[in-house]
Amino acid sequence: MKGVQLAEETNGVIENVAPFTEVGMVVDFDSVLDSKDFATKSFLAESLEEAEQQAVKEAEEYTDSHFNPTEVFDGSVYLISSQSYSWGASLMKNGLIVICTRYTPGEGMLGYGYGVYIIPKAAIEALPGKSFWKSMDGDTNGAKKTMYITPTSIHGADDNGVAPNNAFVFCKIIVY
């Protein structure tokens, strides 16, 4: 028995996944798939049950590899120019999530006032190494963080560690 997984690709996004299709009498199968813009993966199985198990396993591996976020930092950092974090290029599928929290110098993170900032991969690729500014939600003093982001790294700016910008810190950086 030969099986094939089909997933339709629309505007670069995999949709309409069919976990398993038994291939029977198909004429010119490859041209049909090419014309429909399907992503395929074929495999051999001894039984329908084995084919279904293989298809589910392959689908889970694909989903995990494509949508599994990777935490590259967990702690408390101003993210000044000498501080950077990096990751493999293949880890960034969709972008970067930066989580910040209120902070009092000399005391530490305050445990409230979190800000979640999502920087899409398309913006990072369009402006690699350029500065991204994020203002602290709810702050009236103009506190902001400056980040320089590429598809494989992030580093900050020295003014991230001085008032009023030191009133919040990065506590998580997640590549997804």
What does this structure look like?
- By secondary structure, the protein is α+β, with helices and mostly antiparallel strands.
- It folds into 2 domains: 2-67, no CATH class; 70-175, mini-chromosome maintenance (MCM) complex, domain 2 (Sandwich).
- Helices cover 19% and strands 45% of the residues.
- The chain is built from 3 helices and 12 strands, in the order ββαβαβββββαββββ.
- It has helices at 29-36, 48-67, 121-126; strands at residues 2-10, 13-22, 38-44, 70-77, 84-86, 95-104, 108-109, 115-120, 131-135, 144-150, 153-156, 168-175.
- A hairpin with an 8-residue loop joins strand 9 and strand 10 (144-150).
- The longest helix has 20 residues, at 48-67.
- The radius of gyration is 23 Å and the shape is elongated.
- Mean pLDDT is 82; it is low at 20-38.
| CATH A-level architecture of the largest domain | Sandwich
The DSSP helix count reads 3
Beta strands, count: 12
Q: Summarize the main sheet.
A: 5 strands, antiparallel
* Overall morphology: elongated
The number of domains is 2
Give the topology.
Layout: E1 2-10, E2 13-22, H1 29-36, E3 38-44, H2 48-67, E4 70-77, E5 84-86, E6 95-104, E7 108-109, E8 115-120, H3 121-126, E9 131-135, E10 144-150, E11 153-156, E12 168-175
Antiparallel strand pairs: 1-2, 1-3, 4-12, 5-11, 6-7, 6-8, 6-12, 9-10, 10-11
